[in-house]
Amino acid sequence: MDVLALIDKLDDLVHNARAVPLTDQVRIDREGVYEILDQMRSTLPEEIKQARWIVKERQEMLAEAKREADRIVDEAKEKAERQASQQEVVKLADKQAAGLLDEARQREREVRLGAEDYADEVLGTLEVNLEKFTAAVRRGRERLQGKSEDRASDGPFVTDDSDASDY
How far apart (Å, rounded) are the C-alpha atoms in residues 153 and 37? Predict the structure, then answer.
């Protein structure tokens, strides 16, 4: 399940919790909260693994582009050496080799930039998701802490969860 869906589920659980009569407190199914948190813990490593896979793929694409550029350069050099017998042919070969080298460098740059953009986009999405997850957890904890502080200040009306169910 997607982390954002789990965050929404946790938010709904807190939002739809039953109110304790005569107080502003609510009862939350502790097991339900723990279940959702466990699902989040199991989902996050998968998203991190995906981000690592994307970085690895980017590195492989860059390495492949470099190998291709090297192959093109080597091809151009070999071709230039074979045609070196005539000065005009040599000049033409040099132009072609330079053109091929420039083309290979441009291709390598395009592939590298595309891979970097893609990796940055995925990592940015992951960062946003993690920030939302952190904010939702923080809100949930603040709500729970606020409820605990309210319960402590209410005095004898609500002493523990078993008393709260009697209302």
Answer: 28
Tokens of 4: 């954002």
CA distance 70 to 67: 5
Distance CA 69, CA 63 (A): 10
Spatial separation of the C-alpha atoms in residues 37 and 6, rounded to whole Å: 8
> Cα–Cα–Cα angle for 72, 74, 76, nearest 5°?
70
Q: Which residues contact 126 (CB under 8 A, 6 or more apart)?
A: 47, 48, 50, 51
DSSP 3-state of 25: coil
Angle (CA) 42-57-102 rounded to 5° is 160
Give the Cα separation of 126 and 107 in Å (integer): 28
DSSP 157: G
pTM reported for the whole predicted model? 0.35
- State the residue for tokens 């970097």: 116
**pLDDT tens-digit map of 64-89:** 999 999 999 999 888 877 777 667 76
- Domain limits of the chain? 3-157
Structure tokens at 142: 């603040």
Dihedral (CA of 106, 107, 110, 116) sign: negative
